[in-house]
Amino acid sequence: MSANPVSLPLAISDEDFRKFREFFYRKTGILFEDSKRYFVDKRLLERMEATQSDSFRAYFTMVRFQAAGTELQTLINAMTVNETYFFREEYQFTCLVNSMLAEIVARRGDSKRPIRIWSVPSSSGEEPYGIAIYLLEHWPQIDQVDIEILSSDIDTSILTAAREGHFSARSVQHLPANLLAKYFRRRGDHYQIVDSLREVVEFTRANVTDPADMRLHRDFDVIFCRNLLIYFDDLSRKQTAESFYDALNPGGFICLGHSESMSRISSLFRVRKFPEAIVYQKPWGAR
Q1: Which residue, 140, 152, 150, 128, is CA-closest to 101?
Q2: Structure pTM?
Q3: Residue 14 bears catalytic tag
Q4: Which residue among the candidates 16, 153, 155, 221 is catalytic per the annotation?
Q5: Coiled-coil annotation: which residues (predicted)?
Q6: Residue 72 CB neighbour total at 10 angstroms
Q7: 56-94: per-residue pLDDT in tens?
């Protein structure tokens, strides 16, 4: 008579971690350093339990070969960090209103095409909605020039949350009280942005390291891509910068996070030092 097999605790070995890290990097461009091991292990084990996988090998096989790709997307959602707040690095919004838009409007002459702004990653919507609020409050030409705001993320669950427009007290803590009252409605312990603003921003899924996704996103005048490239390695940063270059109209601007520098990634862009901020520009006349 044999004993019943004993179930061992699920675990991620060093080799498992290296395999997963390489796979995830190829799929997303995001490279997890060894210092992120605890974060990665925790989320992998959560997904293994949720899918009732009895080993890393079984789970990893499902992620790689599942035809629908739903578990891969769920895993991407779990691995991506989505923490931000309204009016983060507000000085770039000031630069947008006072400097970048003024130059774009002056160069475009009497063109009636809309000015297109792309916020990526969208996270839960604080940045694209924040841009809309800032333009409404501070840009005198808002009633004369059409503006389109598109926001994208690789995380489909966070895109759903962004479309619904619910925010915690922490997310709105830096908003002036008058803007909070004007553009939000209190819903229990959180705030929901008003419907008129929810209709202003279009949300799409995009993986900025996937050329096919990036080819669908074109003709932007300003791109906000803040605090994303820090998660990539040098090769992915360079490829993404080149994709952003292709996505911008000539003379278009890209804004990075305060700790990021396009000069260290690509020579395609011109450094522009405005009174409010340093941003990067696709040269006028470039294709």
Answers
A1: 140
A2: 0.85
A3: no
A4: 153
A5: none
A6: 18
A7: 999 999 999 998 889 998 998 888 877 789 999 999 999
